[in-house]
Here is the input.
Amino acid sequence: MRVSRRSVRTAAVATGAAAALLLPAAGAALAAEAPAPAPAPAPAATAGDPSVFWRNVDLADGSLAKVYQDGPGRFSAEIYGGGALIGTLVSTHGKPAHGEHDGLHVVLRPDGTVSSWLDHGPAPKPKPAPEPAPKVVRLPDGHTATFFAGRDGRPYVKLSVPGGKSWTYDFHGTLVSAHR
Here is the structure.
């Protein structure tokens, strides 16, 4: 029995068409049993689209750039953020491609390298350091020691007795003031 090319081609087309019609129905029937759908594979190279996956690049804000080589000296990058496609950059004729989305800047160079950075708004004004509260310590002999920072920023200790007398010393042991 002899089979012609036309017969083989017709059988292949019919089989492909039947598979295309039946697979979505089979997939829907199995969808309840499948744990999670697998991510879509990279586009396959065809005669009209010679793009080949080149690499993934992590961007400054945590997004992902999937870089494809579309031909000699021609690259494209698909930018994904939060699992969704944000945009596509295409570098052709030896010129870089630039893109910006919500403060994320991305550059795709003609050699396929990718760089990214974030916009920075005005720097927040620094909050003044809180004034440290004085530390009060009761000594066993009845005296009270109060540790505090003076106006000049240096540390001091004030010793007080129950009768109202007090002495202020710096941390070198020098008497600064006496109150009676």
About this structure: Confidence is low (pLDDT under 50) at residues 26-34, 41-46. The chain has one helix and twelve strands. The longest helix spans residues 5-30. The longest strand covers residues 64-71.
